[in-house]
Amino acid sequence: MPILIIEDEPKTGDYLLRGLSESGFAVRLARTGRDGLALAREGETELIVLDIMLPGMDGWQVLEALRADPATEQIPVLFLTARDEVQDRVRGLELGADDYLVKPFAFVELVARIRTLLRRGPVREEEVLRIGDMEIDVLRRRVRRSGAAVTLTSQEFALLHLLARRQGQVLSRSLIASQVWDMNFDSDTNVIDAAVRRLRRKIDDPFQQKLIHTRRGMGYVCELEASAP
């Protein structure tokens, strides 16, 4: 089944159509929100790349219609838009978007995000993650431990969110770098280690139960560990 692009800007739409086709995807292109919604409802779409600023029916309205229709509610949607305000990202996630990428963008990153969504499938991400006494409100980007608010920078939140949603999995430094910073770091860099230390000072140091653990030579994992007898 093909990827559906809903993009009204001619150069951008043609660029995406050509680039994704050359990357091995089957692709269809709609120039308006209404045309895109009609194509999605035909049942031949695996993923949608959706602009927000569309004529007539904008991307917000398209997404709401997709999520309200049992035939399309599970199709992964990636917003690709010039709107880069935090409130726009939050609104997109609250309406049911699976990812949000801001223009201008690196094409290789777009392809990587598409492949990640296709591997993940239609499973919706939880809005609240809980590990022990820690609660992460993903949409509002708020963290609490034992009922106390924990203030994090945007980068610290992204790091914690990655560790928490992959709870119990040991994540390598290179994977963390690519997911949180969208960059590749040399294996001997201490950037990741320093970032984890800063996060631990806020998440773990004030509390008896530690949640972020080092696996020497492998990476980091977020999980509850059994207490020593």
TrEMBL record:
<dbReference type="InterPro" id="IPR039420">
    <property type="entry name" value="WalR-like"/>
</dbReference>
<dbReference type="GO" id="GO:0000156">
    <property type="term" value="F:phosphorelay response regulator activity"/>
</dbReference>
<dbReference type="GO" id="GO:0005829">
    <property type="term" value="C:cytosol"/>
</dbReference>
<dbReference type="InterPro" id="IPR001789">
    <property type="entry name" value="Sig_transdc_resp-reg_receiver"/>
</dbReference>
<dbReference type="InterPro" id="IPR036388">
    <property type="entry name" value="WH-like_DNA-bd_sf"/>
</dbReference>
<feature type="DNA-binding region" description="OmpR/PhoB-type">
    <location>
        <begin position="126"/>
        <end position="224"/>
    </location>
</feature>
<feature type="domain" description="OmpR/PhoB-type">
    <location>
        <begin position="126"/>
        <end position="224"/>
    </location>
</feature>
<dbReference type="GO" id="GO:0000976">
    <property type="term" value="F:transcription cis-regulatory region binding"/>
</dbReference>
<dbReference type="InterPro" id="IPR011006">
    <property type="entry name" value="CheY-like_superfamily"/>
</dbReference>
<feature type="domain" description="Response regulatory">
    <location>
        <begin position="2"/>
        <end position="118"/>
    </location>
</feature>
<keyword id="KW-0902">Two-component regulatory system</keyword>
<dbReference type="InterPro" id="IPR001867">
    <property type="entry name" value="OmpR/PhoB-type_DNA-bd"/>
</dbReference>
<keyword id="KW-0238">DNA-binding</keyword>
<protein>
    <submittedName>
        <fullName>Heavy metal response regulator transcription factor</fullName>
    </submittedName>
</protein>
<dbReference type="GO" id="GO:0006355">
    <property type="term" value="P:regulation of DNA-templated transcription"/>
</dbReference>
<keyword id="KW-0805">Transcription regulation</keyword>
<dbReference type="InterPro" id="IPR016032">
    <property type="entry name" value="Sig_transdc_resp-reg_C-effctor"/>
</dbReference>
<feature type="modified residue" description="4-aspartylphosphate">
    <location>
        <position position="51"/>
    </location>
</feature>
<dbReference type="InterPro" id="IPR006291">
    <property type="entry name" value="CusR-like"/>
</dbReference>
<keyword id="KW-0104">Cadmium</keyword>
<dbReference type="Pfam" id="PF00072">
    <property type="entry name" value="Response_reg"/>
</dbReference>
<dbReference type="Pfam" id="PF00486">
    <property type="entry name" value="Trans_reg_C"/>
</dbReference>
<keyword id="KW-0597">Phosphoprotein</keyword>
<dbReference type="GO" id="GO:0032993">
    <property type="term" value="C:protein-DNA complex"/>
</dbReference>
<keyword id="KW-0804">Transcription</keyword>
